[in-house]
Amino acid sequence: MVDGNCGARSGRRGVTLVELLVVIAIIGILIALLLPAVQAARETGRRAQCSSNLRQIALAALAYHDALSTFPPGLHQRDFGSAPRYRGTSLFVFLMPYMEQGNVVSRWDYAEPLSNTVGGTNAPSALVMPTLICPSDLIDENPVLDGGRYFGMTSYGGNGGTRSSYPDFATADGIFHTTGPGSLPSPNQKPVRMSLVRDGASFTLFFGERDHLDPKFETFAAVGWTDSLQKLGAWAAIGGKRRIADVTMSGYSPINYKLPFDYQHRGAAVPPANSKSAFSYYEDLRVCAWGSKHPGGANFVLVDGSARFIADGIALVTLRALSTRAGQEPADY
After folding, report:
1. In this structure, is the dihedral angle defined by the CA atoms of residues 88, 209, 95 and 192, taken in order, positive or negative?
2. Residue 287 lies in domain
3. Which of 103, 135, 263, 267 has the fewest beta carbons under 10 Å from its own?
4. Of all helices (H) and strands (E), which one includes residue 247?
């Protein structure tokens, strides 16, 4: 007697290895197609969060102006006569009460700024504020250890005009610059008032982003010709006259400017960078540069409080026109 189910069972066929590999390949292709879309969606969210951060900073600066009739100094410096000779208070410290960080400034020592670095990672200067960090920015260490002191980092800076570093050559034609007895390029510079923004609040940069990643630049930091970009951007910006570079950028170089050569190929640069002093030209270009990890440009906020994404292909002359507060240049971006 023959079992009627036997033939049915013998007619079944298992999945072959080739078919399994085809299915795996199709799944791999689908994942490969989906991954860029997922990454793009995540970057869109990070860019939106970054823009929101900048708007909050701008609102704090506008509230400061409402209260004191000026914008905060970029860095109010005093000459202490001993190393570090120039020590001061940065624009972000002045903005703390308007960013729900009044507890920080309630214990801030304005008379001796260096005392704010006492306490290691618990020092006032070491505070890490999410509002001051772009989620796309690549910062290896935050707070960063620099010169035996800890500093909280920021991805943002104020508009320092057409040139913000080296301070001796700074233009002080933007919104934020050094003030007080130790200010540069001129002593006793004053903070900027809204009435001095004669190019219009809708056509003048207020705050923007800094990109902390530049592998070729880091090859010069490795040999001691400059400091790592990973240590640039301390919101407290206390010691030394060059610390204005921590909290301001400018139109001196294109958006997303990166060093075009590494230490090994420094002699091929035009002009050559065969010495530390010669390299300072390129150092200033990089330190002044706005930039971000958002594809194609960087987030900014204008003096009127409106946020803009500006492409890194913007003409340098236009970027510089947006950087001045009273240059009377056309700035159609």
Report:
1. positive
2. 40-323
3. 267
4. helix 244-247
